[in-house]
Design a protein that fits this description.
This protein is 40% helix and 24% strand. It has a five-stranded antiparallel beta sheet with strand order 1-2-5-6-7, with helices on one face. The chain has a three-stranded antiparallel beta sheet with strand order 3-4-8. The chain starts with 10 loop residues before the first strand and ends in a 7-residue tail after the last helix.
Length: 206
Amino acid sequence: MRLRANPWPDERRFPVRSPGATAYVACSDTSPVVNYPDGSWGPREFSYVEIPDDPSAPIYVIEFGHDEGVPKVGAVSLVRRPDGREVRTVDLRALRSVEDVAEDAWAAIAGLPLAAVADTAEEVDANIARAALAAAPDLKRAMRGARRRGRRRVTPAVLAETARVYREARASGAPTRAVGEHFGLAPSTASLYVKRARDAGEDMGD
């Protein structure tokens, strides 16, 4: 986990709206990723960087890891700019909440299509931008629910409950979505729960 506002190797950036600042989420284009059953992906580690419009103010950096389909905050830093003033208490009070930043960062960078589906770099960027806009509300809701619950262990009881919800929702035509709504999971994580339940021999009603 990095602790300074240094760029990632082969860095890719995704803009995030933040009043009074330029903000973005960044990750390495060559670092390991987490691949989901639905074909989407998320980087194992990434950073949120917020650069205030005030050139003397420090830069706000949050470092994320990845755990069970949900990003986890690993470090929060205020970094003094080379020509900026020292970090002050007022800067701490002005920070956006870690929870809000985590939701925005997750919506900006998670669940995006693999770059290989596009032929050019421009198409990759365009596809990512479109997917982020479409997926952001669902991702943020899932992120909020997951953070409230904390990390859930996928126990045999959870797998049995997954199978029950899946069976009962088969008639709806969207049983995996029902699992996601029941547990408050992102679609990709709901798919993983269903796969684990099936692999464990649970009755899925198939």
